[in-house]
Amino acid sequence: MPIINIKRDLLFKALQKEYTDDKFAEVCFEYGIELDEVTSEKDIIAREQGEDKAANASEDVIYKIEIPANRHCQSTSALRCCYFTKCNPNIGTDTYSSMIDLQEKLHQNICRRRALVAIGLHNLDTVQGPFYYDAKAPEDIKFKPLNKDKEYTAAELMELYKSDGHLKHYLHIIKDKPVYPIIYDSNGVVLSMPPIINGEHTKLSTNTRNIFIDAKIVLDTLVTMISEHCGQKYSAEVVDVIQPDGKVVTYPELTTRHEIISLKDVYSLAGISLDTEKIAKLLTRMSLSTTVINEKEVKVEVPPTRHDIHIAIAYGYNNIPRSMPKSSTIAQEFPINKLSNLLRQEIAQAGFTEALTFTLCSRDDVSEKLNKNLASSKATHISNPKTQEFQVVRTTLLPGLLKTVASNRSMSLPLRLFEIADVVIKDDKTDTGARNERRLCALYYNKSPGFEIIHGLADRSMQLLGIPFGKSDKGYYIKGADDPLYFPGRGADIIVHGNRIGSLGVLHPDVISKFDLNMPCSALECNITDFL
């Protein structure tokens, strides 16, 4: 969910009221949002770029507020100082940053990461209407993109941005299409190539006086947020849009819609038993004009500044009465969790320390660093990773344990670690296209490999699971395997009931060095789901 940064003093000025940090956190919760962190611009830059970069940064207190996908419009209204901009007067630095932040947050939620809507904000004084929305072949599109000093064709931009941490996530929307969308003015000046990038020619700055917005679904939200700080408050110039069939439509529409709410719906959705008069008062508190139709229904007028109606928030989440479920059930621990807990206790008693590592990791962690091919890892990829460290869902527990060892190299040797947790494997036979697998992973790190210790842990685990040693259908044994993860001749598969459930061995020196380690290490990893 998107997180917005708001300067505390500007927020309190807009609300005409001040709060302590704890009290404001309570207010946010009651409103259906969450105060994620209290920080400052200086602290943020110091964490992300280093202390040197933060030397001249502002120390103004910043509230980082998490906005759920269903709360974008009410939240921006209530915390509107984060999103102010100006269409006619000068745009200050804070206002400019807030305006860009609004655009990006809308892209993240209601715009479905630009797949549904791409918002373009342009300096109107640099272009000449009318404006044209067209589609052209990539090689026929050429312009200077935002923050670049030379022109590129659309095909060249696709190559340029495939390594860009921000824009690369949107390239797939149009990359394989025969034509790309393009917006240009009457003189052929390119405004943007949605949903990828705007042109440098219409770039906004703190000196911009008039803003041209190309968007539709979120247009009302943008206009109502921006208009409060126009030269003439709450005003915006309309634009006539000529559609392909010749019909002329005027934007922004700024329409008001009406909704009928019944007592039955309120009770079934929120579990609140209220009369129509009480509902009308609550919605009035939320700045929604409400009329009582009869004893069972109310009519609500929803302005263009809003997209939702939240009676439960007005009533107060903490005021909703708790109730017992209508059906009684008896809780029981999942068998896989019970088995995992029993194994944890025994492995800890064997002298191993349990670790809890991240479920997400980098692509290299499950492939290149383990001397394996990424395609063979069957990893589930994250479409919008925030960092390179969290690109895929782990397919093995080993990288997490190796990173833990690397972070604790100063501790006395040997290091014995284990983890029992889920990994996710792609599987076309399942409804979701992937399946969870509960794994046991352990490693031993010391001046000598300690293969016998890991082998002994495997024997002990099988003993606890009631699996005798032997090559019968009811037993287990280890079988030498040529696995690039392990040192040649020092790796083996674990065979149980005739099926491979995992492996163990001395890790290959290349694997160890890729995790910034310099001593031998033995490891064991196996699937315990099949033992249920």
TrEMBL record:
Q: Which Pfam families match?
A: B3_4, B5, PhetRS_B1, tRNA_synthFbeta
Q: Which UniProt keywords apply?
A: Aminoacyl-tRNA synthetase, ATP-binding, Cytoplasm, Ligase, Magnesium, Metal-binding, Nucleotide-binding, Protein biosynthesis
Sorted alphabetically, which SMART domains does this protein's record hold?
Answer: B3_4 (SM00873), B5 (SM00874)
Q: Which InterPro entries match?
A: aa-tRNA-synth_II/BPL/LPL, B3/B4_tRNA-bd, DNA-bd_dom_put_sf, Phe-tRNA-ligase_IIc_bsu, Phe-tRNA-synth_IIc_bsu_arc_euk, Phe-tRNA_synthase-like_B3/B4, PheRS_beta_core, PhetRS_B1
Q: Which GO terms describe its cellular component?
A: phenylalanine-tRNA ligase complex
The coenzyme or cofactor needed here is: Mg(2+)
**What Gene Ontology terms for biological process does this UniProt record contain?**
phenylalanyl-tRNA aminoacylation
Q: What sequence ranges are listed for the domain B5? A: 254-332
**Its Gene Ontology molecular function terms?**
ATP binding; magnesium ion binding; phenylalanine-tRNA ligase activity; RNA binding
Instruction: State which Enzyme Commission number(s) the record gives.
Output: 6.1.1.20
- Its source organism is Trichoplax adhaerens
- Record family assignment: Belongs to the phenylalanyl-tRNA synthetase beta subunit family. Type 2 subfamily.
Protein name stated in the entry: Phenylalanine--tRNA ligase beta subunit
Principal location class: cytoplasm
Q: Which Gene3D superfamilies match?
A: 3.30.56.10, Bira Bifunctional Protein, Domain 2, Phenylalanyl-trna Synthetase, Chain B, domain 3
Q: Give the organism's phylogenetic lineage.
A: Eukaryota, Metazoa, Placozoa, Uniplacotomia, Trichoplacea
Q: Where in the cell is it found?
A: Cytoplasm
